[in-house]
Structure formats: structure tokens, C-alpha cells
Amino acid sequence: TSTHEIIAAELSLSNVTDAEVLPNLLKQTRRKIIEISGDGAYDTRNCHDAIRLKRAVPLIPPREGAAFWERGHPRNLAVGCQKLYGSNKKWKKRYGYHKRSLSETAMYRVKQLLGGKLSLRDYNAQVGETYAMIKALNKLTGLGMPETQYVV
Fold first, then answer.
1. Which of 14, 15, 20, 145 gives a 20 to 30 Å CA spacing to 71?
2. How far is it, in rounded angstroms, from Cα 8 to Cα 133?
3. How wide is the angle at C-alpha 11 spanned by C-alphas 118 and 96, nearest 5°?
4. pTM for this one?
């Protein structure tokens, strides 16, 4: 979001992939989502279907050597760029894929400000601990984000 708040979270077991969790994350929010970005691990039909249900634009680079999907699928544009230029680099630049780093930065803030480790052993308790961390981080974020100043 423009406020840098975390609006959805999911704690999963180690044998669950990020792509499997995305549909549940999207169901957690009623907010209008314009774009959803993720790395190539999210380049699955399940993820693209969940994003389409949210009426959002997927900013997910296709995996290397990806094939086109059915005619008119939004993913085909990225696949076409990959085939034309030999990589996803130009597509990433043109469609603002670099914005994904904002979510990576949020995870970094969780780990730096709040320790990044869960202290409770029970899974349900860990879920509560995770949501408490997110609530605390959102409160800190609401107080103000750091501003970068260039020193010459």
C-alpha cells in the first residue's frame, strides 16, 4: 500500500510453498488491489486465477522458457517479452516490477525491528505472535517511515 502497512499475512508450515498461500492472502483483504507482484515462484495458474478474481494486474515474471497460455491471458505479454529479448529484464523495467522490493523491505523491517524469530512453540500461538508483530510494525510504520537523504 502507499502507507507501507502490511494488510494480509499467512503463517504456513515449511512444506507449503508461497504460491499455495497467495490465494488465501488475497481473500484476507476487501481492499481494491491494483497490482500484485511476486517472483517467479508465483508463476502458476492457481496464483494467476486468484489474482484475476481480485481484478488485479499480475506482475509476476514467467519462469525461464515459459510457454504462452490461452489467447488473451495477461501473462502472455511477459512471456512474449521474455522470448523476444531473451530474459525478463525489459519487462520488469517497463512494468515496474521493482516495486516488489517494497514487500521485501517490509519483511526486512519485521526481522530487524522485531527480531524475525518466533519464540512460541505451538503453531496457533505462533500465528498470534506473528499477527502481534505485524500490528506493532504497522503502528511503527504509521508514526513515519525513514527518509533517505543523499550526502554529497
1. 20
2. 13
3. 110
4. 0.78
Look-up: residue for cell 499455495? 20
Closest to 127 (Cα-Cα) out of 38, 45, 18, 13? 13
**pLDDT average per 10 residues of sequence, the chain (152 residues):** 80 91 92 88 94 93 91 91 88 82 81 80 90 89 78 83
Check if the beta carbon of residue 19 is closer than 8 Å to that of residue 42. Answer: yes
In angstroms, rounded to a whole number, what is the distance separating the alpha carbons of residues 56 and 54? 5
Query: What one-letter code names the amino acid at 51?
Result: I
Name which of 144, 62, 141 is nearest 108 in CA terms: 141
Cα dihedral 31→3→47→126 (10° resolution): -100
